[in-house]
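Thread title: Can someone regenerate the structure for this chain?

I was given the following input by a collaborator and told the matching structure tokens would be attached. They weren't. Posting the sequence so someone can regenerate them.
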Amino acid sequence: MAQETARTQQSGLRRDLSGRQVGMIAIGGAIGTGLFLGSGLAISIAGPAVIIAYAVAAFAALALAYALAEMIVVHPEAGGFGAVIKRYLGGLAGFVSRWIYWAAQVVNIGSEVIAAGLYLQFWYPQLPLWIPVVVFSVLMLAINIAAVRFFGEFEYWFAMIKVVTIVVFVVLGVVYIVFGLPGQQPAGVGALTEHGGFLPNGIGAVWLALTVVTFSYLGTEAVSMTAAESRNPGRDVPRAARSMVLRLGLFYVLGMLVVVSILPWNQASSSGDITESPFVRLFTIVGIPAAAGIMNFVVLTAALSAMNTNLYLTARMTHSLALDGYAPKWFAVVSKNGVPRRALVLSAVGLALAASLSVFAEDTAFPMLLGLALFGALVVWLMIFASQLVFRRSRALEGLPPSPVRLPGAPVTTVLAMLFVAAVLLTTPFTEQFNTAWKAGVPFVLILCVAYYVVRRRGAARSE
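Best answer:
Regenerated them for you:
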């Protein structure tokens, strides 16, 4: 533990994040606009059985959270899961995992800022899209440039809006289903089976939906990146990881149960239109005034929250790479308040590129980037699970005590989770939304492998 503490002190990062902030940063990274708008896509593929898909994916995410917590509580250093992967799988894996994750998150940041701009146009349709995109980008960068405790507090309240909205939605939905509402009879759960049955498109459709559903859980690994800046990582990171996945599972599973119990699955929209969101439909049925406007505000904050957290992640990832000599040392420098501002510059460049491609090359380049984002995130998940297997074995061989936090059922649980993630990754070519994953992901991984050996050779030449 002393080595990790020394490394964190050397990194210049400050332990200023409280336990509640760490927990909400994890939620903020995992819940974007997908639940509020994109959930209709998964429903349109699997029908009411989408509930099964969300539950299965939740178990995989929970296994990942425990596996990460088990390692991070022993190694709470800068770089989070990237540093752990390097430690147990070697330099190449550490290099590839961090750069591909950086690229995946940059794509997500670009898509979220464009989404935020479109949500603002809901109220101001004549507003040119580039104006809110630039304003939101500058605002989120400013928040990240400030002291980490300010970022943590800002993200805490951003994420809280999403959590409160989901809780209100689930409670209203359950009341409507069981007891009814003023002027409304109890809805019951007839919609689960009335429109072609619970499995209208067969069990195969549930598996295809898992690709979309698993995408909703990406971000679970974000909590590990807060370890180097948490006041008490040994306590806060495992607690945040467990509570985050449990919340996500409950939010997604209960949220989808409410949706498919009230709305016929074949009427669930897969579009990104605010007025077609399942959440807006329920709030409209309940009689909440200006339901679409309220939900537009919620998805706007959801997009900004996800963008805010992902900027934090990419900056820390770049900073970690620079510390290990896998990126220019210029990016390892931190400001007086302990923020890697130079690393944010690279993230800002990536943000501008991804946002531009999502506007000007929406039908060509951006789908490739989206596929790369999913491919990269799933590959990182596989590396995390593999690291946990090596972590356990190496501690046993060295006679070290087990981690205070342990993944139940491991290594069997770990292997099963890895098989699940690998199967989802192999399924991506068969889904319309992510069929570019392998086309973009494999070449990018090969490029990173070549880049690693070039960087390592140059590093060796300089040390001679």
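The CA atoms of residues 50 and 442 lie 29 Å apart.
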